[in-house]
From TrEMBL, chains A, B:
Pfam families: HMGL-like, PYC_OADA. This is Pyruvate carboxylase. Residues 9-270 form the Pyruvate carboxyltransferase domain. Keywords: Coiled coil, Ligase, Pyruvate. GO terms for molecular function: pyruvate carboxylase activity. The keyword Translocase does not apply. One of its GO terms (cellular component) is cytoplasm. It is an enzyme of class 6 (ligase).
Amino acid sequence: MANINPRPVKIMDTTLRDAHQSLIATRMTTEQILPIVSKMDKVGFHALEVWGGATFDACLRFLKEDPWERLRKIKDQAPNTPLQMLFRGQNILGYRHYADDVVEYFVQKSVANGINIIRIFDALNDMRNLQTAVKAANKEKAHAQVAISYTISDVHTIDYYVGLAKEIEEMGANSICIKDMAGLLVPYRAAELVSALKEAVPTLPIQLHTHYTSGVAAMTYMKAIEAGCDIIDTAMSPLAMGTSQPATEVLVKTFEGTPYDTGINSEALSEITEYFRPIRQEALASGLMSTKVLEVDINTLRYQVPGGMLSNLVSQLKEQNAEDKYYEVLKEIPRVRADFGYLPLVTPTSQIVGTQAVLNVLAGERYKMVSKESKGIVRGEYGQTPVPISDEIVKKIIGDEKRITCRPADLLEPELDKLEKEMAMYKQQDEDVLSYALFPQVATDFFKYREAQQTKVDMQVADTKNAAYPV
Amino acid sequence: MANINPRPVKIMDTTLRDAHQSLIATRMTTEQILPIVSKMDKVGFHALEVWGGATFDACLRFLKEDPWERLRKIKDQAPNTPLQMLFRGQNILGYRHYADDVVEYFVQKSVANGINIIRIFDALNDMRNLQTAVKAANKEKAHAQVAISYTISDVHTIDYYVGLAKEIEEMGANSICIKDMAGLLVPYRAAELVSALKEAVPTLPIQLHTHYTSGVAAMTYMKAIEAGCDIIDTAMSPLAMGTSQPATEVLVKTFEGTPYDTGINSEALSEITEYFRPIRQEALASGLMSTKVLEVDINTLRYQVPGGMLSNLVSQLKEQNAEDKYYEVLKEIPRVRADFGYLPLVTPTSQIVGTQAVLNVLAGERYKMVSKESKGIVRGEYGQTPVPISDEIVKKIIGDEKRITCRPADLLEPELDKLEKEMAMYKQQDEDVLSYALFPQVATDFFKYREAQQTKVDMQVADTKNAAYPV
Ligand SMILES: [Co+2]
Ligand SMILES: [Co+2]
């Protein structure tokens, strides 16, 4: 081994974002996070993923926490390691397309509050949906990483991904991530893909993100690294594997003494492992972590669809007393996908394709019943599909309705001013308008809760100190 | 990939032996096993590991089953796939050295009842402890596989293992297994080791056996296979990973379409997966399977000792109110190991070394207190240590006592006749004497139970059919 030139692998630790999002419904609190951050900051990670994805929504909705405050507190404890967030293109962290002024302001405030690396992706890989965020990140001098949603279909060839990589380079991204959210990327395929991308865009670092769902993840990292992958995403072992990432400690040890040695000291990790172990144990004991998420999902390997999609199907069919149609629906899925321009199967497209497949089978005639979301896809509301949808399908689904061919956000008026007005009465910091923009109802509830807490605290202060209300 | 010559990997499935031994305390019953065996027989596995190890003891002691009957029933359902057992050299499946006549008779009866491949190993890698079993297997025309107990120490170099492999070849073994019971073998080391063994003994197939305990197992298989490993041991996913083997479905899928393609049809596996899934779920629900065994054990990676060994230490220290001595004991372990000729740390040597390290630390003086088992090791009762123990240590531990330098079993008189006499009153089949030889008390209890059951059944027959006792 000693003869080969060293090519150290960089490690991005996801424990504080994707790992708990994947295993314990994003329920890790800031209080649980903070005591260990300064130790994680000293390890020498490439970055810590600590924000974005579902954490923003979970903070406001379930934990009654201000996500911006979480970010600032983490930054305080981690001055040395770049902080990373996951950003869903024009959806930001929400569930619709937002106007550019919201996207730009969100990026600006994320960076101002501590984010260094923004990983930006789009469910359809419509690169137009990433432009605004990438440009904004460039402007804020953050690292703009564009993530390709990895999927398997007849059109998702190596050449297709190489084409995307070149677009990403042109767009001004600083690195590329292959984002395999379902664990579909098998090891030798990963080697092929990474080699091709490194050749196509040799100056951009390539990062690989996968989940252990189907059981291949660690092997996939290994083959990717041997093929030239620069950075891998891992999680501390108590929150690793299953539907989460491979374990940080394991990958660090695996490459120790090889040309890929991460340079991370295993001993520095052990205290962090011990910190997270009781969090795992409590989550298992309370049922917050189900043992289901720790199991190998062979359906992912068999049907090349995300694990969660099939359990959704089963529930849908059960509700209709049509469980016997399961295998028919399974066969219908790739057909719907082909009809819909070979969508990647990720949130929300996996639900849209799955539901339409169920409707096609149950109605006994394809597209006799069509969901609102299916119409949205065909209308172009989500952006461009990987290949164009045939005229025949368009006709069948939306008839002669007008289709959107531009970038969907081009149709949106600036909306920040209006949002500011709507929520002015709750505003305590500039960032509050962004929380409100993404989740109007949930943010409003949080703002009210926050005020009530403050009043309560103030009341206590008032009671105990000088029997007067502070202003 | 298509340009490389195909070199299909063979898969040995451990679900019915090691997997349930590792995850659910060897408690799978014959009733649970039988309904799925004929399906497993049709998959095209290299072999099914179904017997030996702890299953024999568990059948008699906990399940009140006759292990021989289990073997015959499995054979009935699996006429096409070789059946494999794990055989602990001169210990057979028990906890002491047995005379050669017992070893020979056990091999003969194992083969007669359905075993095709006997994997034979010794905790100390003293090849003399394997001779009798290997010769007996040769005589019975079974496949004799010798397993090397893999461990890490200053003397366990690649050259050391190459030396063992050559001894194994000379001994007349049909294949070699690298048996990494603790999950210590990291991926790139596995590649080195397998390459060296393939070069040293090119005619013998090399099989790799590891456990997922430390989280590297699947990667270790991958690097071993790329380096020339012929056969890997895996378990069906519901009983895989954690302290068990990597998942069969996952490895099959990983090599699909590569030069290492196993040729196994993934679809043929899915029904088997579904069969074992409820067994996993019930075991988790009842607590028979602890979520502890599913966790990555980073101590294995950190201290290069088997996971279970450290939890034993903690208990021992707790009992003595000396938990603060933990790190002192951890440092003492490699010193005791060196003193004792660099024993591999497996059952029973891991317990012996661990306990002696505790005694050395608690007594405040090394070898002031010495366990009976430590004396046994130094006396040579277990066989030869990897390197000789120094005169100084010998003197300190056993003074001028006589040491055994021959093969321990050479000191044992034939014992079958005596055993036959002792248990004659219980005998219902030839094999019963072997059950009695290995576990005299447990087998006697089982024989009594068996008789009681038979009498009860007879009583019922008598009652319901013709009011007379059958003879
Ligand atoms: Co993810
Ligand atoms: Co084993």
